[in-house]
Amino acid sequence: MSVKEVQNSKESQEYFVNMGPQHPSTHGVLRLLLTLDGETITNVEPHLGYIHRSIEKMCERDSYQQIVHLTDRMDYLSCHMNNEAVCLAVEKGLEMEIPERVKVIRTIISELTRLSSHQLWWGVMGMDLGAITSFLYGFRDREMITDIFEETCGARLTMNYNIPGGLMFDIPSNFQTKVKEFIIHFRKKLPEYDQLMTNNIIFRNRTEGVGILTKEDAISYGVTGPSGRASGWNNDIRKIKPYSAYDRVEFKEITYTKGDSFARYKVRIDEMWESMNIIEQLIDNIPEGNYKEKTRVVIKLPKTEIYQSVETARGELGVYINSDGKKSPYRVKFRSPGLSNLNALNSMAKGGKIADLVTIMSTIDLVIPDIDR
Amino acid sequence: MKFDIYDFSVLTSSIHELLRSVMGETSVMITEMVIVGIVFLTLFSVLGLVLIYIERKVCAFFQQRLGPMRVGFWGTAQTVADAIKLLLKEPLMTKSADKFLFNLAPFIIIISSFMAIAAVPFALGLQALDLNIGVFYVTAISSIGVAGILIAGWASNNKYSLIGAIRSGAQIVSYELSVGLSILTIVVLTGSLQFSEIIESQRDGWWIFRGHIPAFIAFVIFLIAGTAETNRGPFDLAEAESELTAGFHTEYSGMKFAFFFLAEFVNMFIISAIGATMFLGGWMPLHFGELTSFNEIMDFIPPLFWFLGKTFFIIFIMMWFKWTFPRLRIDQLLTLEWKYLLPINLINILIMAFIVLMGWHF
Amino acid sequence: MTRQELQNKILSFPIETSFAETEVETQYLTTDVSAKNTHALISELKNNSDTYFDYLFCQTGIDFPEHMEVLFHLRSTTHLHEIVVRAKIDDRENPIIDSVYDLYKTAEYHEREIFDLFGVKFNNHPDLRRLFLDDDWEGYPLRKDYVDEINIVEL
Fold first, then answer.
1. I need a surface site. Which of A176, A302, A348, C65 has the fewest CB within 10 A?
2. Chain center to CA of B135
3. B235 → chain A, closest CA residue
4. Which domains, and CATH codes, for chain C?
């Protein structure tokens, strides 16, 4: 029932609760208007736009190198992958050959970003469910990755390392040692995550059977990423349309079939193991060569349309560039994974309780700036 | 060499004689009440301070960090600083809140904690109210706290608070049953409801060892139900920070919020004290029936330290629960109580009664 | 199916489509169709078992000086081929097109976003309101002739 209908009807027992823009567990500024019947949710209506910064309009004014810097701010937890998407699109438009060294380093850094995003997701999920200790464990392990990034790119959060044509700087001399140390350390710590949360009976009761998303619904709603793979849909862009160095590494695509919150949780935990496998395969054999190709100072793409997808930690991020030969693109569209994932929230949360809504939102792993752009 | 446990009633009766020699009968009674009141007020505040500091340090220990370190030596003055901050805060009240009930709610909770702590036996003779229905009195008084929570949620005129208060009301009313029944298991062993007699009957060994299996099951149920009674640990969805901002005390600020906060910690102390008294012997040192020399060595440690040690041990376990486990949903919580804990409890009492009848306890 | 096969298959549908000639081959096969035939074409593409495009992965609006376009990027999860359907809307003042919500539920938010930023109205959409901007915002920001008083983005 819509807002007006509920307010006007006299027999309805439903009432509205606002999980407002400021809320500890909406992971950003998202307003959810819940229609409740007792403790059961009958409708969830998200209101977006609190952090809409008109990135797509700004891209119509900026040069191609400047667009890359805007993409960090979209999904700030997978910023390397966002940058990589735009760089690959521009390189495809210019039909440039990228050195092998660049491809391998881009893949390693993307997988490290995916790991750090999943670590943060795990910590915050525990905190949302009440096990506040997991927040600190997740961040403790994430510190090692942010330290590596700080040495390589110079920043901990908005790391503009990819540029059209290659990388901004070369990797430092201790990059390989530090990454190997991190892998050894994290391989011992990840089973702790299982001990603390995965095998806990309270956690299982909170997540199993909660927020089921069928495979047909996942495809119809366009729910990509780990959330879609937990419903049995093989949508990993790294396997379907490999980019950078993904065609030369071996890794499994993790799918579960149940489609509930526990399956989404398990997909991400298993993905962390796979990311470590990918990094281990690449870290010892980084080819020598240039770390960037020379491009013109003012990049002009020919009159063409390009679409590039990458697999971020949340799903398929697509960059659509329509250029008319000038120094700024005519239209840039970012197909954000969060928007489609959020669309499915209503169907997943109907009929559950408020506590279930919090579980579902943490397992979908929303980052609101990604949705609002 | 036998070391007699110091009897505090010697001290209290000498104070009583001193006062009698100075003033009349009624004035003596009033003076004694005032003294007891002041002592308990001080105990309340000191307990609150110490417990909040311990909570922060234990929490930090589990999360691999240090906790408060800067204010005072190793952060000991942190809680005092927090108390001063809360005193200086603006006491807000929403315009459409019910004024009388809004102000009344924190006081109800504090009063119920106060009355319950009066019956807790700290040492031999150091007990304010030694009623012959001690156990019954404590379980009855701790139920009054529910009224305070429900009134706080209703009077705030806020949907979040109302949801939190109703959840909490349902939870506390359900888990009182389990707390009461698990205490009853020990009463079956002792045959008396009076706290001092219960402790005396543990002179040959604590009930958790002597009552073996049923007493141990009752202890585990008591721990679970006790954490649920005080809205702590995995059962804290009444104030679930990540769902409803702060539950039933969202609208409170300043000193009134401090009352809720304090009452939660003192309630935790009371539940632990009751648990320590019933299952672990209260202030009675660790004795094993026939080992007289061992018992004499145990008697050297004053009973007050035994009592505080046991209580803080149970408090540590409750804090461990809170910082490890995720939260239960409201329907899972109520299912746990009504479908699992209650039947187990009832069967446990039957088994215990049977054991007492056949004399199979130690 | 390869590009040529797809092109032939689409030309065999009873719907008026055209394929633009470009000097550089486009990344995906691009089908041009008018606004009123779009829904029929897309539902044919979805339901036909040879093409079976069941995943709408991007829906974009583009503003041109004389007309508007709505682009549909479709992929098939079984055959793994992709296609772009370009719907031309000739009326730029009052652009209207049919919604594809009944075929793909993901269109709900994508179409709301296009309505919000371009002003394209979608028929049969369950709940067509603005998505990011306030309900009482005037104007459609991503249009090329949108004038911003505060001059936040100066083209």
1. C65
2. 13
3. A130
4. 3-96 (3.30.460.80)
Phi and psi angles of residue B224, each rounded to the nearest 5 degrees, phi first:
-65, -50
Over 90: is that where the pLDDT of B103 sits? no
DSSP string of chain C, one letter each residue: --HHHHHHHHHTSSS-EE----SS--SSEEEEEEGGGHHHHHHHHHH-TTT---EEEEEEEEE-SS-EEEEEEEE-TTT--EEEEEEEE--SSS-EEE--TTT-TTHHHHHHHHHHHH--EEET-SS---SSS-TT--S-TTSTT---TT-SS--
Partners for A (CB, 8 Å, 3+ pairs)? B, C
| A305: nearest CB among C26, C54, C56 | C26
CB contact under 8 A, C155 and A49: no
The enclosing domain of A260 has a CATH number of 1.10.645.10
CB spacing of B245 vs A23 below 8 angstroms:
yes
How many angstroms separate the CA of residue A342 from the nearest CA in chain B? 18
- Lookup result for tokens 């390392």: A161
Chain A nearest C-alpha distance from C12 (Å)? 26
Residue A67 placed within a domain:
yes
Contact C134 A331 (CB under 8 A): no
CB of B325 within 8 Å of a chain A CB? The answer is yes
pTM of the shown model: 0.88
Report the residue of chain B nearest A195, measured CA to CA. Answer: B324
Calculate the average pLDDT of chain A: 87
Predicted local confidence at residue B236, as pLDDT: 81
B240 touching chain A per CB within 8 A: yes
- Under the banding of pLDDT at 50, 70 and 90, the label for residue B11 is confident
Please check whether residue B281 is in contact with residue B219, taking contact to mean a CB–CB distance below 8 angstroms: no
> What digits encode the pLDDT tens for the residues A319-360?
999 888 888 899 999 999 989 888 898 888 888 888 888 889
Q: A130, B325: Cβ pair inside 8 Å?
A: yes
Q: Which pLDDT belongs to residue B135?
A: 87
Average pLDDT over residues C105-121: 89
Q: Would the pLDDT of B104 be above 80?
A: yes
Chain B positions touching A200 (Cβ under 8 A) are 325-326
Residue A18 lies in a domain: no
Which of A205-209, A353-357, B147-151, C147-151 is predicted with the least confidence, judged by mean pLDDT?
Answer: C147-151
- Predicted confidence (pLDDT) at residue B316 exceeds the cutoff of 90: yes
CB contact under 8 A, C142 and A57: yes
Domain count, chain A: 1
Q: Flag whether pLDDT at B1 surpasses 50.
A: no
Q: Does the residue A183 lie in any domain?
A: yes
For residue A5, tell me if it sits in a domain.
Answer: no
